[in-house]
């Protein structure tokens, strides 16, 4: 078989003379070939695609071109470009341009950061930001408009929670939004109110729309700046492809403009936002499997079943353990979810549905079962996005229905301090259940859900393997029986993530005929100490055989 593969490659080389080839050598390379993780030392590239991998001497014997570019990586580790199976590209870009409140451990420090930002940006009409997380604060309570008013009383403020499923406004913003004690909770949302029925300044899920509708829309220049910022950050992290969880018409048009101008260094697999009018327009010509040399695809749809666990918006079958009487929120009825899933699947698109709580996961599984029954066909690859809290008896349904679990390892390590408080010691057994899902044959596509979490995939790699935070806690790992192996983790960020986007024939591994998307990193992910995994640095990022990023610390 090896001789046959090399013969076919040699035949291809004979048919493509008078071209440039690139030989990447002296590498500690890893890639999957089917189910096997292979180690190699050299990679031969032509026209942006892999011709062969193997021993350096062997590949030099295959060179058949007018010119050869040689790159010595001096023994560093080389792996396929990482694929983030769930992120928000524009959200990441805007976070780079606006105030980022992620990781702050107190309300007081959050307010100090906001005050400094407002003073440094006196011309901003609105103060916009994201990333606050009350479960990290010493106070461990929802903030209020009055908190914000103390530091920014004269300009409207709107701050998205880290998960994007809650927003925090000051009094000026609520005044502009005309929110009062008489403003009702919308379907699928909640306005947090005090004991006298007055809005406190926090809006959950659909209720965020009250304030969002008065926030000025970004202009074309700001949108382009955000996309450029996201592109640059992702390539520096070694992310060569991302599944963008929620793409609108204007955004898709901008992606096309960037791709046509050669300004994209990261491939984008788009999920259309919702099954309504946006889907109707963007799906007119059917799924787009690959455009602009596979830098863009649009063949999936993002739907929502519920909110997030941290804001208690995730829909549970039984009450929140730490808030009796509250089961969270299902955004739509079962009939409505069935109809949306059926519409999407019926038009040949992949349904990718956000579900955090066990009630939401059950609703989504029921809806996908209905849609697949109405439109039977092989290889639909429908997905549950997040799949965080699953009722134990529902886990086998992922395999029975052939549903992909699109999961984010850092969610487990970020949520570990509050997740069991929310659901209790019994339901937590079906939470973040990676190894249980993998053990039954379910495909897991790993991602980060940036900007909810950091876009750095090595934090996810570390979390998947250790079930610990970056301080090494808890000592033995949080429910470590559900941790992934290193091979499982690498596959979930490469070949299985590509599979989740119908792209395993062109991406996800360094096999002959696939795009030469790869990264060179400063340590061996297969052998380095667990504690060092999250500290991995990207030295170079290559997309389609072209270097698109080099760190300041060169290959020395």
Helix content: 25-40%
Regions with pLDDT < 50 over 5+ consecutive residues? 1-16
- Overall residue-averaged pLDDT value: 94
Structural class: alpha/beta
Reported for the largest beta sheet, the result is: 9 strands, mixed
Oligomer: single chain
Work out the number of β strands. Answer: 25
Radius of gyration over C-alpha positions, nearest whole angstrom: 24 Å
Work out the strand percent.
Answer: 15-25%
Number of helices, where a helix is a run of at least 4 consecutive DSSP H or I residues: 19
Q: How does the overall form come out from the CA principal axes?
A: globular
Word description of this protein:
The structure is a single chain. By secondary structure, the chain is α/β, with parallel strands linked by helices. The chain contains 19 helices and 25 strands. The strands form 4 sheets. Strands 8, 15, 16, 17, 18, 19, 20, 21 and 22 form a 9-stranded mixed beta sheet that branches. A 6-stranded mixed beta sheet has the order 3-2-7-23-24-25, with helices on one face. Strand 10, helix 5 and strand 11 (157-161) form a beta-alpha-beta unit. Helix 3 crosses helix 8 (220-236), helix 11 crosses helix 12 (358-374) and helix 14 crosses helix 17 (457-466). The chain is globular and about 80 Å long.
Give me a quick take on this structure.
This protein has 556 residues and is α/β, with parallel strands linked by helices. The chain has 19 helices and 25 strands. Helix 9 (249-260) links the parallel strand 15 (239-247) and strand 16.
